[in-house]
Each structure stands twice: as structure tokens, then as C-alpha cells.
């Protein structure tokens, strides 16, 4: 996958920007607050239809403007596709190859993007919610219908919990909610199980690489149903509905839902010790890097092409060995790297790097490598 170009109109601090990208490394260099992340944020929008920094679309529209536009051409499976996102004060439209899409899952899986920011270095350290979000984003861009299951599940869970908070609880309605939670939940459980199995194999190898074979990283699926290899959607449905039914009294008492995919997490072990509890800061960070980078291989395996990789401000967080490892090991991946550190320019092979120098919402100068 390769992003060819990008056009921004009234996007954050950009008036009207058009850039052509290098098929290998794109380095966005500039002082703080100049607009580097804004560019990668817009690339992310082409992939997910929304920002990774805010849920409020109107914050992204340039101050004192009415509408924004982001458009980008990219190559996938040998042909070029165009994604466009337009946002007005109260409306939003997304087009793929000039055709309006109705639902976000029609966009997902077009442009595959892996983004790595300093927050991600805390992936292992942080709470289960962040890890679930990581899992959900990744599966959604590989299997877009997963996003639909998840949206439906969350909607029902919200309704059920709302009902549990009322004084007169309609038990028949609770039955319907539980059956639907089991219906969508069983698909999600199975897809998560399969995803985690695949990513754990890749992450283990990645981690071995990063630690010179000293540490063995193992990742597994932490869930309340004890889901195993043999389980199918229908056996999970039965297990899950059973749990929900048995915890009915408990749910009514506590006014919330005890079992479900909203309680899932990952077990993350290094050399048989739980990294979250016993790992050093460094081990937790390295495990996060392994986990995060394994998405790249997985997308290549599942989708058939490498995703594009965004490293937002994360480069200076890595030590020199890892910086080199990243750049050398991922030579087939198109990268967008933001940095405020001018000296980073020297790390990259000039022949496949384009440097965009950014100042106050403008690309003031482009240093072009052989492209
Ligand atoms: N809606 C908006 N309209 C106009 N300007 C905006 C808008 N939202 C943010 N900005 C401006 O964008 C700038 C921040 O851009 P960005 O986050 O891309 O910076 P950066 O170059 O990544 O900086 P850093 O190195 O600190 O991460 C700020 O100066 C901010 O005022
Ligand atoms: Mg930034």
C-alpha cells in the first residue's frame, strides 16, 4: 500500500495544501506546534474516517472556516484509489473513488494504516480498555464487519445497562438484550481469539528480535468464558448466554453487566512473568513496541499488502538500536515520520527519503531523495 498524495483544505492549521509523497520514507520535520501531527492525523482520517486525537469533528476544521476537505490517492492491489472526507459544521461525507459511502465499515479496510505514537509505548502498562481499543481497531481494518458487530454489541449493552438502572425492570426485555449480546458477542469473541492467536506468534518473533533472543514474549486472550481453539460461534453463543442468564440476579443487583467482551483483556508475559505486574518500565515499553509492530506483519499476511506506517513523535522515544531496527526491518513499508529533532534527518538513507520542512501550517521546503 502506498499513499501517493494528499490534499488538505481548511484542515487544522492548513489552508490549502497539496503534497506528493515518497514511496518509502517521508520525514515531516518542524518545531513544536507547526502542523506535523496535523498531516498524519489527516492521513489517519482517510483510513478510519475520524481523527485519532478527538471525537469532535468540528475541532478539526480550521478556525473561522466552515468546511474542511481531505483527499488522498493511494495504490492498493495494483490500482489507484481515492478517498475523500468532507466535514461541515453539521454534516460529514466520505467518498471512496467518488462514491459516497453510507456506513463507516465500507471505508475501513481500504487504506490500512498502523500508527505509533508515544501513547502506544504505554499499551502494556495501561488498563484493559486501551488494549481492547487496540484489538478493536486492528481487527476492524482487517475484517470491517467486525466493526458492525462491535457497534451493535455496544448499543445493546448501553440499552441493557440503562434498563438495569430503572426501577421497574422488564425481564422479557432483558432476555432480548441478553440474547442479542450473546449473538453479536459470540462473533466478536471468535474474531478476537483468532486475531490474538495470530498476533501473538508475530509479536513473539518481533520481541525476540528486539531483545537479541533473551526474552520470550507470550500473549494470550484473557476472557471470562475460557474460550479455546475448539470453540465455534455457536458454542460461544451458548456459553455466553449461560453466563448472562446465571448472572441475571447479580446484574440486577449491581445494575450493570458482569460478563461479556467488554471485560476482555490480554495476558502479556515475558519469560513466564506477567509484564504488567513484574515487568520493568523498559520491558513494558519493548513489549508494547513488539505488539504494536506486529500489526504490520499481520496486515501484510491477511490483506496481502503492507499497511502504511505512521510514527508520530515516537522516534526520539526509541533508542538508537531500535531506530535502526525499525528503519532497516521495515524497508518495504511506506513510512510517515514526524519529528521536531532536525538531527533525525541524518538517520535516513537520502536515496529513499523525502524531507518535508513544516512551519506554521505550510510545507516551506522539500528535500527530495531519489524517488
Ligand atoms: N482547528 C484548528 N484550526 C487552526 N489551527 C489549529 C486547529 N487545531 C489545531 N491548530 C493548530 O495546529 C497546531 C498544532 O499542530 P500539530 O499538532 O500538527 O503540531 P506538531 O508540529 O505536531 O507539534 P509537536 O512537535 O509539538 O507535536 C497548533 O499551533 C494549533 O494552534
Ligand atoms: Mg505532533
Outline the structure in words:
The protein is an alpha/beta fold. The protein folds into two domains: 1-112 and 305-371, P-loop containing nucleotide triphosphate hydrolases (Rossmann fold), CATH 3.40.50; 121-303, RecF/RecN/SMC, N-terminal domain (Glutathione S-transferase Yfyf (Class Pi), Chain A, domain 2). The chain is 39% helix and 24% strand. It is built from nine helices and 15 strands. The protein has a six-stranded antiparallel β-sheet, with helices on one face. Helix 4 crosses helix 5 (233-246). The chain is globular and about 65 Å long. Magnesium ion binds next to helix 1.
In short:
This protein is an alpha/beta fold and 371 residues long.
**Which fold name fills CATH's third level, the topology of the largest domain?**
Glutathione S-transferase Yfyf (Class Pi), Chain A, domain 2
Distance between the termini: 16 Å
CATH arch. level architecture of the largest domain: Up-down Bundle
What binds here, in terms of ligands, is: adenosine-5'-triphosphate, magnesium ion
* C-alpha-based Rg, rounded: 22 Å
- What's the overall average pLDDT, rounded? 94
Identify the strand order in the major beta sheet: 2-1-4-5-6-7
- Low-pLDDT ranges: none
What is the number of E strands?
15
> What structural class results from the helix and strand content?
alpha/beta
Element layout with pairings:
Layout: E1 2-11, E2 14-20, E3 25-29, H1 36-48, E4 68-76, E5 79-87, E6 92-96, E7 99-100, E8 113-116, H2 128-142, H3 145-164, H4 171-210, E9 217-222, H5 233-246, H6 248-254, E10 265-270, E11 273-274, H7 275-278, H8 281-303, E12 308-312, H9 320-329, E13 335-339, E14 353-359, E15 362-368
The protein binds adenosine-5'-triphosphate (ATP) and magnesium ion.
Magnesium ion binds at residues 36-37, 313, 338.
Amino acid at each position: 500500500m502506498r499513499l501517493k498524495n494528499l490534499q488538505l483544505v481548511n484542515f487544522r492549521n492548513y489552508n490549502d495544501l497539496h503534497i506528493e509523497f515518497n514511496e518509502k520514507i517521508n520525514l515531516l520535520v518542524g518545531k513544536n506546534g507547526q502542523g506535523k501531527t496535523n498531516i498524519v492525523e489527516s492521513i489517519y482520517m482517510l483510513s478510519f474516517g475520524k481523527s485519532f486525537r478527538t471525537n469532535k469533528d468540528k475541532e478539526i476544521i480550521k478556525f473561522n472556516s466552515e468546511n474542511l476537505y481531505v483527499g488522498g490517492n493511494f495504490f492498493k492491489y495494483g490500482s489507484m484509489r481515492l478517498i475523500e472526507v468532507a466535514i461541515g459544521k453539521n454534516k460529514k461525507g466520505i467518498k471512496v473513488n467518488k462514491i459516497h459511502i453510507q456506513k463507516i465499515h465500507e471505508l475501513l479496510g481500504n487504506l490500512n494504516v498502523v500508527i505509533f505514537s508515544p501513547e502506544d509505548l504505554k499499551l502494556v502498562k495501561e488498563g484493559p480498555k486501551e488494549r481492547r481499543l487496540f484489538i478493536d481497531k486492528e481487527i476492524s481494518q482487517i475484517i470491517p464487519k467486525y466493526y458492525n458487530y462491535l457497534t451493535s454489541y455496544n448499543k445493546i449493552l448501553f440499552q441493557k445497562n440503562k434498563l438495569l438502572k430503572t426501577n421497574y425492570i422488564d425481564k422479557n426485555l432483558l432476555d432480548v438484550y441478553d440474547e442479542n449480546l450473546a449473538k453479536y458477542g459470540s462473533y466478536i469473541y471468535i474474531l478476537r481469539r483468532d486475531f490474538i492467536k495470530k498476533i501473538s506468534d508475530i509479536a513473539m518473533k518481533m520481541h525476540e528480535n528486539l531483545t537479541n533472543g533473551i526474552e520470550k514474549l507470550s500473549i494470550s486472550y484473557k476472557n471470562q468464558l475460557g474460550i479455546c481453539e475448539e470453540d465455534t460461534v455457536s458454542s460461544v453463543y451458548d456459553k455466553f448466554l449461560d453466563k448472562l442468564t446465571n448472572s441475571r440476579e447479580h446484574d440486577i443487583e449491581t445494575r450493570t453487566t458482569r460478563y461479556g467482551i467488554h471485560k476482555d483483556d490480554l495476558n502479556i508475559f515475558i519469560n513466564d512473568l506477567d509484564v504488567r505486574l513484574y515487568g520493568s518500565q523498559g520491558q513494558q515499553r519493548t513489549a508494547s513496541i513488539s505488539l504494536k509492530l506486529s500489526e504490520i506483519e499481520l496486515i501484510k499476511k491477511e490483506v496481502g499488502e503492507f499497511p502504511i506506517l505512521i510514527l508520530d513523535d515516537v522516534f526520539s522515544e526509541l533508542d538508537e538500536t531500535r531506530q535502526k531496527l525499525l528503519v532497516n526491518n521495515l524497508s518495504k513499508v511506506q513510512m510517515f515520520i514526524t519529528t521536531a529533532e532536525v538531527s533525525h534527518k541524518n538517520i535516513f538513507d537520502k536515496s529513499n527519503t523525502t524531507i518535508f520542512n513544516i512551519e506554521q501550517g505550510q510545507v516551506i521546503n522539500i528535500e527530495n531523495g531519489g524517488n
